[in-house]
């Protein structure tokens, strides 16, 4: 099934620069319906209000981290099927294992390029 | 009052234990030095070769403490703790702010370029978009640099705490409460918090390829 480019995507990062970069890269891929949150708790609140087709989240944020957000999403019956990609500078093996155990769909390490972002989205949502 | 050597050893143990009860593990070197000096001064009577060895070691310890105090005071640790580290932290914060502002300006310019792409001929537009994409990718640096600066500031705070402990050991007054310092010197982070380390050193960090391989191994 083709990827719906109008589906809502939520990007989560405490660095406004990163939100702008990811948003612009997604726009280049023709995704237009993009919302932002600056930490896990704000993201979770947005997810309870609107159904997102994909969440792209940083890990290292306060007060709620991306890992906490992921766990909370996976524990919520109405949200648990939401595709979730972690984009983070945390590149240690134990981090990848912890994220996988929490139910992440894919993992991008910063700094990343447009091709990697596209590839990981395609691996989660299907080719586009 | 004079004491025999074996009594001196007992008294040394007793006085060190009393100090530990009173101050915990952080005892001023001045106090230790004064105890050692008092014990050396109080040793009288028939001394065995073992007593003499203990006597010599105590004397060496007293000399060592004096020399260490002298050398450390020459470094002027108060200046490091009160001036240099706070200034370094402020400078690093300022770097972070400048980086954020500069990156914002770069992104403004990129978005302005992207806005005119539809107005130019398609081949030129594609080249412009490729160039803008490269700039977006390069702007990752702001996030990573910010996280590295945060790590450096944390390290400086740890150094500051240790310098404060050193000052306290030498009998200087240190501002701040002991609980805060204990918290800083002991890793009491939860398992999740220990996963928050920020960017790794490039030479040892896992690459995206490494992570992809690891990720793929989960599904095998």
Describe this structure in words.
- Chain A contains 5 helices and 5 strands; from the N terminus they run βαβαβαβαβα.
- Chain A has helices spanning 16-28, 40-49, 66-74, 93-102, 114-125, and strands at residues 9-12, 34-37, 54-57, 84-88, 106-109.
- A 5-stranded parallel β-sheet of chain A has the order 2-1-3-4-5, sandwiched between helices.
- In chain A, α3 (66-74) links the parallel β3 and β4.
- In chain A, α2 packs parallel to α3 (66-74).
- Chain B has 220 residues and is mostly helical.
- Chain B contains 8 helices and no strands.
- The longest helix of chain B is centred in the middle third of the chain and has 40 residues, at 77-116.
- Chain B is elongated.
- The mean pLDDT of chain B is 80.
- Classes of the chains: A alpha/beta (128), B mainly alpha (220).
- Chains A and B meet through α1, α4 and β5 of A and α4, α5, α6 and α8 of B.
Compose a concise summary of this entry.
The complex is a heterodimer of chains A (128) and B (220). Chain A has 128 residues and is of the alpha/beta class. Chain A contains five helices and five strands.
Lay out the secondary structure.
The complex is a heterodimer of chains A (128) and B (220).
Chain A: E1 9-12, H1 16-28, E2 34-37, H2 40-49, E3 54-57, H3 66-74, E4 84-88, H4 93-102, E5 106-109, H5 114-125
Parallel strand pairs in A: 1-2, 1-3, 3-4, 4-5
Chain B: H1 5-23, H2 29-42, H3 49-75, H4 77-116, H5 122-138, H6 140-169, H7 178-185, H8 208-218
Helix pairs in contact in B: 1-2, 2-3, 4-5, 4-6
Descriptive key words:
heterodimer; A: 128 residues; alpha/beta; five-stranded parallel β-sheet; B: 220 residues; mainly alpha
Task: Compute the number of helices of chain A.
Answer: 5
Q: How far from one another are the termini of chain B? A: 79 Å
Overall pLDDT confidence of chain B: 80
Average pLDDT, all residues of chain A? 95
Helix coverage percent of chain B: over 70%
- Which protein chains make the most extensive interface, counting residues with beta carbons within 8 Å of the other chain's beta carbons? A-B, 36 and 36 residues
Percent strand of chain A: 15-25%
Distance between the termini of chain A: 9 Å
The total count of helices of chain B amounts to 8
Quaternary form: heterodimer
